[in-house]
Amino acid sequence: MKVILTQDVKDLGKAGQLVNTSEGYARNFLMPRKLAVPADEGAMKNLEKKQKTLEAKNEKMLDEAKSVAEKLREAKVVIKAKSGAGTRLYGSVTNQEIADALKSQHKIVIDKRKIHMSEPIKTAGTFEVPVKLHHDVAANIHVEVIGQE
Fold first, then answer.
1. CA atoms of 85 and 80, how far apart (whole Å)
2. Are strands 76-82 and 137-148 parallel, antiparallel or unpaired?
3. How many domains are contained in the chain?
4. Containing H/E element for 58?
């Protein structure tokens, strides 16, 4: 029996996917729990319409990510932090501080979870910090950390 999944089902498929299952599994498990609907004409048209809107939404998100990536490649973020003798910082520069600095200095809003650092910055200097904006789009931010005694 062909059904369209309305939610992700382990070992079967993702939401919106057309799958072929046994009739008993579909009628006794999937449909009563509203995990799937029968794949009739109306449901198929509805599925196609949802896929088109999802593709358009993903395309728009990709275009936005590319434009933000271009801005990030040109931007340089300056962060001032307290430091001891030499270049060692008292604390560290985190993803959140970089996101806040981007917002205040360049008016670019990025979620801190998209900024990927293996570990926080603990010394003064210039760093390249990777940012993953979309699964196909990544950029680097130039971060300059200035130590203040």
1. 15
2. parallel
3. 2
4. helix 41-74
